[in-house]
């Protein structure tokens, strides 16, 4: 009987604890990945460069002794898209079209920057700015007087 108890205690002692599992996984994971372990359940959080790194991180965690399950909450960084700035000639034409319904607004375009002067009603300002922003200028320099 004492042999069975000793064997049971020995086997329980052999099982890695959460802190040991966490430390072992964390040393193998890429930078930016946080590992949390509770009762053998591993949670991965953080931001990674691509889907392959996310998948590999989960595989590393699952392979560790004592891990029961892995919750992969890693997010993949969005690809940075290049900023598109409209051509100056096209921008001049489009700004003229966008401001035609606002007779008290004067708009000038220089090097991709729209300079707004004049007066505008508060209710119309948002509409004008949305139209101009959609044209993809480098910048909108708003010097309008809001009434």
Give a nutshell description of this structure:
The chain is α/β, with parallel strands linked by helices and 147 residues long.
CATH C-level category of the largest domain: Alpha Beta
Which structural class best describes the helix and strand composition? alpha/beta
Q: Major sheet: size, sense and barrel closure?
A: 4 strands, mixed
Count every helix, treating DSSP H or I runs of 4 or more residues as helices: 5
Number of strands: 7
What's the assembly state of these chains?
Answer: single chain
Describe the structure.
- This protein has 147 residues and is an alpha/beta fold.
- The chain has two domains: 12-76, Histidine-containing Protein, Chain: A, CATH 3.30.1340.30; 88-146, Alpha-Beta Plaits (2-Layer Sandwich).
- The protein is built from five helices and seven strands; from the N terminus they run ααββαβαββαββ.
- The protein has helices at residues 2-14, 18-28, 51-63, 88-99, 122-133; strands spanning 33-38, 41-48, 69-76, 105-110, 113-120, 139-142, 145-146.
- Strands 4, 5, 6 and 7 form a four-stranded mixed sheet that branches.
- The longest helix has 13 residues, at 2-14.
- It is rod-shaped and about 80 Å long.
- The relative contact order is 0.11.
- Residues 4-11 have low confidence and may be disordered.
């Amino acid at each position: 009987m004492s042999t069975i108890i000793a064997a049971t205690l020995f086997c329980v002692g052999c099982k890695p604890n959460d802190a040991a599992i966490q430390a072992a996984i964390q040393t193998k994971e890429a930078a930016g990945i946080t590992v949390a372990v509770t009762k053998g359940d591993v949670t991965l959080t953080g931001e990674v460069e691509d889907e392959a790194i996310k998948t590999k991180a989960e595989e590393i965690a699952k392979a560790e002794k004592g891990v029961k399950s892995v919750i992969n909450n890693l997010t993949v960084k969005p690809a940075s898209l290049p900023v598109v700035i409209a051509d100056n000639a096209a921008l001049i034409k489009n700004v003229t079209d966008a401001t035609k319904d606002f007779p008290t607004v004067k708009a000038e375009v220089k090097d991709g920057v729209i300079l707004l002067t004049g007066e505008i009603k508060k209710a119309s300002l948002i509409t004008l700015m949305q139209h101009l922003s959609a044209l993809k200028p480098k910048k909108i320099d708003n010097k309008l007087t809001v009434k």
